[in-house]
Amino acid sequence: MNVLELSEQEIIRRQCLQELREMGIDPYPAAEFPTNAFSTEIKAEFKDDEQRDVVVAGRMMSRRIMGKASFAEIQDSKGRIQVYISRDDICPDEDKDLYNKVFKKLMDIGDFIGIKGFVFKTQTGEISIHAKEITILSKSLKPLPIVKYKDGVAYDKFDDPELRARQRYVDLIVNDGVKDTFLKRATVLRTMRNFFDNHGYTEVETPTLQSIAGGASARPFITHFNALNVDMYMRIATELYLKRLIVGGFEGVYEIGKNFRNEGMDKYHNPEFTCMELYVQYKDYNWMMTFTEELLETICKAVNNGSTEVKNGENMISFKAPFRRLPILDAIKEKTGFDLSEKNEDEIRKIAIEDLKMESIDESFGKGKLIDEIFGEFCEGTFIQPTFITDYPVEMSPLTKMHRSKPGLTERFELMVNGKELANAYSELNDPIDQEERFKDQMALADKGDDEAMIIDQDFLRSLQYGMPPTSGIGIGIDRLCMLMIGKENIQEIMLFPQMKPEAKMPQSSIKEWAEIGVAEDWGYVMRKAGFNLINDIKDEKAQGLQQKIGEINKKYKLGYEKPSVEDIQAWIDKANV
User: Where is the Aminoacyl-transfer RNA synthetases class-II family profile domain (predicted)?
Assistant: First the structure.
């Protein structure tokens, strides 16, 4: 990178970096710096009548220099604590450069430093560390966007949602509460694992690259496996592999991992997302509803200090069991007034288009897809408190066992919370002949143009033919679960690194393009620094004025470049106007 592509502060920090090295100070030392305390623990355990020696390390977040003594604030992985630094304490000998030059001039906000000293309380009552030794552990080359306040107005706030998600590392440093969000996410996952493990179920891992995108209705990402010279799919679900393990004899298996669906992005969806799927032998969807209620109530208490309630936007959501249970066709009738239970595909399509005025209906939609669209538009968003929507039509559920008492329906539920689906569960289909027919029906939908229809997985069918016991399974979207349990309304808030659109960059003529009109490489960077990003930008410049502008850059940064003549610059301008 050319130095002129850096900001003023970045250039100064690199100069400080070089000065440190010239003084024999390594700004990135390799040696271990063994700490023995954290900021929060120091404050919690402070005793007035006891001097405690500590070794701490962290990022310097502020500094107040007051002659021969200064205060700094360092941020470690737990919190922040003030440090008192006296020149004569850290420089007991004649050489005072460590304080006068290194600390005061060459160190910057954002640098990592190590402190050896003792804990004390200042005259204002703030628990602090009196430094006896100070060590540079890592030099920061980019300035942090530290919030400043003047007349009650905040400046330099790092609050742009897109920038926060794109530069999560900065978000975590400067914005209070962000790290706590992800610690709570870790609590969600840890509690879920403990819950399953305590029930005797086994965590497993299944392939992320799959030859068939199965286990869900979704559009997959496609990649190419060079060693085998075949196209592969990033998995859209873990279901079919986990069921193979039930066939193989596991009592219960679960997997928490990434799925990938090549679909849209919004506040509730990310193409790469985390999902948990659990399968337990000899259970049905009624058992799974009760199990899910207990699981979610347990997680909510763990994340929210024992409370079964959490605020999400304007809604206070209660995860106290039991949850409401409502068949999907009853839900549609309740919200639209139309009873679809005895209707065929054409009749439902007619109701959707003519009576409900739905514009999203496509000719490729089968009966199940039509019902799904109607439910999604008129019902889903209305269920704020946890509600099990049950007994889906068979056309919507190709992997689900037929309902034991309701012809045409299946033993399936989706859990709706705060207007969105959180979980999907079945009494799993274990009849291999029935399963093969369902797959064929899905292929017929694919032939009609439904690009989310399932592909037949012959190996999965083969596994069922060896016999799978009665089984219940569930999938829970971990990202949505975390949104609910932590009280966040955007999926980007609970994903450390969500997928983002490509970062916008200012249009610039390349150095090669500048060279084509006669501008040497070094002066191409100078032109950019002077504000001329595109060759077209110099069309209306006067040669003498342009010479003066780039000459000021040359002088300011002590570049020492030989100044181009007015005639040379006029030639650049002439070529830019061609």
Answer: 188-502
